[in-house]
Design goal:
Blueprint lengths: L2 E6 L6 H12 L5 E6 L5 E2 L5 E2 L13 E5 L12 H12 L1 H6 L2 E5 L3 H7 L7 E2 L6 H7 L4 E2 L5 E4 L2 E4 L4 H14 L1 H11 L13 H4 L7 H12 L7 H7 L4 H11 L4 H18 L4 H8 L4 H11 L1
Parallel strand pairs: 1-2, 1-5, 5-6, 6-10, 7-8
Antiparallel strand pairs: 3-4, 9-10
């Protein structure tokens, strides 16, 4: 079943705060359905372009929904409008569903300010754009505001630093909901090889080393990320991507700054950690990830620490 993503459309919204996450989710159409809601049928963006066809704010959202609040270009004034006040009251009415876990809230940039005004940030760890941090602390004195963070999650409320970090957060949510492969495919389609993370380092090995354009390395990475648990030798991998083992070793060091062996170990470690989080035993997790024994997994974890 698809996840419904609802974008709250307000006058003055930062175009990239809305379109960045929207484009990211839209590149996984088998997983997400996008909806645009707001107090008025049209809303002008920060670029002067007007978005139309906006649906009214519904009384309630379907269970499992993601509700996205983009930031605005001037949060000092544009959250004091009648339209923003209507959304604030509507958000307050969604708080019971949020507390039950029936929906998740995603605040992009200064969108966290509107959520704070609706009373949703009390006691919640959160962040926002560095220029807005002080105002977020004032708007939600009981919130636990984190400085210098890309994104933060606490009890179903996600908040991000804004602009391109909305894309980072969207990729992270795709990973959380549908796995690293789905997130990787979207990131590759967007040519967003470098993946910044918030609190969760588990996604890093899948996307961290993708900020290059070398086709042979991408082919090798595709093979390794698809089945990191397989018994990959350097020669086998090099043959599959049609280069010599020596050349592939040189390419990884030159473009990624890491050896093929270490890259594969990071992938396997991420798989093992996911298995452990799912409740599997250490031996089962080690073998599922391609480690020969729990001891080998333990040594890999020590090297990564």
């Amino acid at each position: 079943m698809k996840t419904d993503v609802w974008f709250v459309m307000l006058p003055g919204m930062l175009a990239l705060d809305m379109t960045g996450p929207a484009e990211t989710f839209s590149l996984a159409p088998e997983h997400f359905s996008l909806h645009y809601i707001g107090p008025e049928r049209e809303a002008a963006t920060s670029l002067g372009l007007t978005m139309g066809g906006i649906a009214p704010l519904p009384d309630a959202l379907p269970p499992g929904s993601l509700l996205v609040i983009p930031g605005v270009s001037d949060s000092r004034d544009q959250f004091d409008t009648p339209q923003a006040e209507a959304v604030r009251r509507w958000l307050t009415r969604q708080q019971p569903a949020l507390q039950r876990g029936d929906m998740s809230l995603v605040c992009i940039c200064s969108g966290a300010l509107l959520a704070a005004r609706a009373g949703l940030m009390n006691g919640v760890q959160c962040t926002t754009h560095h220029d807005v941090i002080a105002r977020l602390k004032t708007a939600a004195p009981q919130a636990i505001v984190r400085d210098n963070r890309i994104f933060v999650e606490d009890r179903g409320i996600w908040s991000s630093a804004g602009i391109t970090s909305g894309i980072d957060l969207s990729l992270h949510l795709i990973h959380r909901l549908y796995g690293p492969r789905a997130a990787l495919e979207v990131a590759r389609e967007m040519v967003v090889w470098f993946r910044r993370s918030g609190d969760d380092p588990q996604l890093s090995p899948w996307l961290r080393y993708r900020n290059h354009m070398h086709p042979a390395i991408h082919r090798a990475q595709d093979l390794l990320t698809a089945t990191p648990q397989d018994d990959w030798s350097l020669t086998t991998l090099a043959d599959r991507v049609h280069v010599s083992a020596r050349h592939l070793t040189r390419l990884f060091q030159q473009h990624l700054g890491i050896s093929v062996r270490d890259y594969l170990e990071q992938l396997r470690l991420a798989v093992a950690e996911q298995c452990l989080l799912q409740g599997q035993g250490i031996e089962q997790a080690a073998r599922a990830a391609g480690f020969s024994s729990p001891r080998q997994l333990y040594r890999a974890r020590q090297r990564a620490s």
